[in-house]
Design a protein that fits this description.
568 residues; alpha+beta; Taq DNA Polymerase, Chain T, domain 4; five-stranded mixed beta sheet; 49% helix; globular
């Protein structure tokens, strides 16, 4: 067997078996039970970098208690190189072989004019494209077919390696291959997050929910009655000669107008500014919070997503297809803070909660190579030295820096933007170049090599004003995507290193939330696990950061807590 970290291509079909091929070795196969045992032995004895077509194989590994240390996910790397979300074996193969993706054959329905293919054992068509039945996964039902999938995977892998180093990727660097590895590992981490879940104390969660929406209803009629009672807490402040549907924004605007509160829309921040204007506004804000709990994070949410083991589970993906951030379902990424007291470490365990501080401006300093901005990052609060340099208040400096990254040129930070141009010309030039390229409809690539697709097309009949507006919007999106995308790459590098470094202390990542990690570890190993999380950030910054740019200091607010709400 190959050395640790060497590539081992693998194809797996549950119930059928697996095929695997080490670098320079012969393909081996085994039936299902023998295959799982053999793959587990390979992981434990060798620790290769598993090469597979998609995260589905990683999920099969995890489901069978195999936790690989390393992998290379062809689908993840395809999205990194090509941009967007569209993938699948046929598209991955076409891209790797330099074939026109518009020419990918589609499977025709079986009828009088279209009969099943008689080329069952031929994965490739004469035009070089993957056969539609193979692309649909229907030719992964025998060990012989799995062997072909392994052989095809090795060809795609070679093409992806070449592409990562090709000039077409834009300023090729070792960071691109490093990003490919960490992105693959992040998708594997997603499989583990799906399988393991997030510890939640159901009685506490139900108590919080009850505080907003009342007790759990016994049937639909009681649920309707409770909903009406909740509505009445708002409508008792309304004129009695009309009926209003609080779930209809237009009717809510009319309701507010009737009591003398005129607003262009009913967004929360607008209502908050009018909270003291009339009692109905305060009641409406309270109602909205309760309504969100009831409809999205209520008793049904617990019933649907919490298992008998007290773990909250949703589906995960390592990239949203745009800036590359991790995403999750089941409310894992937008859970109200009110529910955080219910996220409790299991008996004998604690959480290590770590949150990156001021991540995006620090990333900007790193990827742009601005020495002055990198020096500001030496402070725990980098906005203060920026404020001192610009001779403005700290809050103004913060708004100006964030505005520069998001393309916001109006408001209280606008006047400080001119100071940013003078004080940090390299960073501002980096953002400006990204914006100008995006305005022209040119695709961008993040520091780690992710393609950010742009479109410069103008719809027929559009005015010059519409065209300028769309170009400006692309510019704002482009400048932010270069920073946010790179920040996502750094975060995932940190996450996968944390996964590896805390394993020694029986640590388990249970949540990745934007720039925050939640790791569960045994109580008696908590301090060591916390140190491992912090050292993983230092290691991630060293591995990820441009080697020819000034070193940038990254910070994490790390604490050992019993429940999520204990974090300050």
């Amino acid at each position: 067997m190959s050395r640790a970290g060497a590539i081992v291509a693998v194809a797996v079909t549950p119930g059928v078996g697996a095929a695997w091929m080490p670098d320079g070795g012969e393909v081996s196969t085994a039936g299902w039970d023998d295959a799982i045992n053999r793959l587990r032995e390979i992981e434990e004895d060798v620790g290769p970098r598993w090469l597979w077509w998609s995260g589905d194989i990683g999920r099969t590994f995890v489901a069978n208690d195999i936790r690989p240390a390393r992998c290379w996910d062809l689908e993840v790397i395809h999205r990194l190189l090509v941009g967007g979300w569209r993938a699948g074996p046929a598209r991955i193969w076409a891209e790797a072989e330099g074939l026109d993706p518009d020419g990918i054959p589609e499977r025709a329905p079986v009828d009088l004019f279209h009969q099943p293919s008689d080329r069952d054992d031929e994965a490739l068509r004469e035009d070089g494209h993957l056969d539609p039945e193979w692309a649909a996964g229907e030719r992964a039902d025998t060990l012989a077919h799995l062997v072909v999938w392994v052989e095809l995977a090795t060809r795609v892998y070679g093409a992806q390696i070449d592409r990562l180093a090709a000039p077409e990727t834009g300023s090729p660097s070792p960071a691109h291959a490093a990003t490919a590895r960490s992105e693959s590992a992040a998708e594997l981490l997603c499989a583990e997050l799906e399988s393991d879940g997030l510890p939640i104390d159901v009685p506490t969660a139900e108590s919080v929910i009850a505080g907003f929406v009342g007790r759990r209803p016994t049937d639909a009629s009681e649920a309707a009655r409770i909903e009406r009672e909740r509505d009445d807490l708002v409508l008792r402040h309304a004129p009695t000669d009309s009926e209003f549907d609080l779930r209809n924004p237009g009717q809510v605007k009319s309701l507010l107008r009737r009591v003398g509160v005129e607003l262009p829309d009913t967004r929360a921040w607008r209502l908050e500014a009018e909270r003291d204007t009339h009692p109905i506004v305060d009641a409406l804000l309270t109602w909205r919070k309760a309504e969100r709990i009831s409809t999205t994070f209520g008793y049904g949410w617990i019933d649907e997503h919490v298992g008998a083991d007290g773990r909250l589970r949703g589906s995960w993906t390592a990239s949203d297809g745009a800036a590359g951030r991790m995403t999750a379902t089941a409310g894992l990424h937008n859970m109200p803070a009110d529910l955080r007291p219910a996220i409790v470490a299991e008996p004998g365990h604690v959480f290590i909660r770590a949150d990156l501080g001021q991540i995006e401006p620090r990333v900007l300093a790193a990827v742009s190579g601005d020495e002055a901005l990198a020096r500001a990052c030496l402070d725990d609060d980098m906005y203060q030295p920026v404020a001192d340099r610009l001779r403005v208040e700290r809050e103004i400096a913060k708004v100006a820096v964030l505005g520069a990254m998001y393309g916001q040129t109006t408001g209280k930070g606008a006047e400080a933007l001119a100071g940013l141009e003078r004080g940090y010309p390299v960073a501002m030039g980096y953002l400006r170049a990204a914006a100008e390229a995006a305005q022209g409809g040119n695709d961008l690539r993040t520091f780690g090599g992710r393609r950010v697709r742009m479109s410069g097309s103008i719809a027929p009949g559009s005015s010059d004003r519409d065209g300028r507006s769309r170009a400006a919007a692309r510019g704002r999106y482009g400048r932010n995507a270069m920073v946010q995308g790179a920040a996502a790459e750094l975060f995932k590098t940190w996450a996968v290193l944390t996964r590896a470094r805390t394993a020694e202390f029986s640590g388990q990542i249970v949540l990745c939330l934007h720039d925050e990690l939640l790791v569960q570890a045994p109580l008696d190993r908590a301090d060591a696990a916390a140190r491992a999380v912090d050292s993983a950030l230092d290691e991630a910054a060293h591995r990820w950061a441009p080697p020819d740019h000034p070193r940038v200091r990254f910070l994490s607010d790390t604490s050992v807590i019993a429940r999520w709400s204990d974090a300050k």
